[in-house]
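**Tokenised fold:**
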Amino acid sequence: MRCKFCSNPDTWSAHAGETISSKSLANQIRSVAPYLRPGGGGVTCSGGEPLLQPDFTAAIFREAHAMGLTTCLDTTGQGTKHHNWDKVLPHTDMVLFCIKHLDPEKYTGLTGLRQLGALKFAEELKTQRVPFWLRWVLGLCMM
């Protein structure tokens, strides 16, 4: 997905950034967990698109739960049930789901993809009973 209103275009390259193991990141989270836990805080995986790295995201969420932290997935719902969603959603307490646009044609114009995948993701959230907040940029509704 290459959303025209992406707030993180620096994450588009799969070869940029720093490689880190889930265990190493979990150790960093563990160091701040005592500050997060009392207020019901937790870990949010956002993007780019965390569902493009489902094994890593699931591992981080499992580690967070083991520390008594909540988990939140900030996503556009990319991927498929068996390759992405079934790996991550069982370890997810809340989803911030950015639908990009409610109109299917405008969604395609904005993202270059068909909206069907995002709608299937919304159905999967319902099926797995994962609470979510549906969001989009209000200015896009006027397009």
